[in-house]
Amino acid sequence: MENVAIVKGDKLILRGLKFHGYHGVKPEERKLGQKFLVDVDAWLDLHPAGKSDCMSDTVSYTDIYRIVKEVVEGPAHNLLQSVAQLIASTTFTKHPQIFAVRVVVGNVAVPGFVDYLGVEILRYKSVDASN
Question: Among residues 93, 36, 35, which one has the least CA distance to residue 64?
Fold first, then answer.
């Protein structure tokens, strides 16, 4: 999945996270589940960590990975938009130093000649206070 978001600054990058979830509006999607592919960009100031070399001055990739895993493998949502929004809002809640997040959620279990179908959202903490 390509990055088309235009946000300046430092970011953490997570690509190609794959999980089995039960999201969708069709009964078979909720019963059998399907594979989802997720990309996340999380913008924050990485200067302190770059200078200190201390984990306490940044956000761990694994923390964001766990958020994505919990949402995708968690309770079912009808829409991928809702899945992406929950990933973004949870990321902001758990990591207040993150000021923008891009989440792409793709469904890879689609028939035909396609890599995935999905949604991409971009949220800014300062602008979208409701997350």
Answer: 93
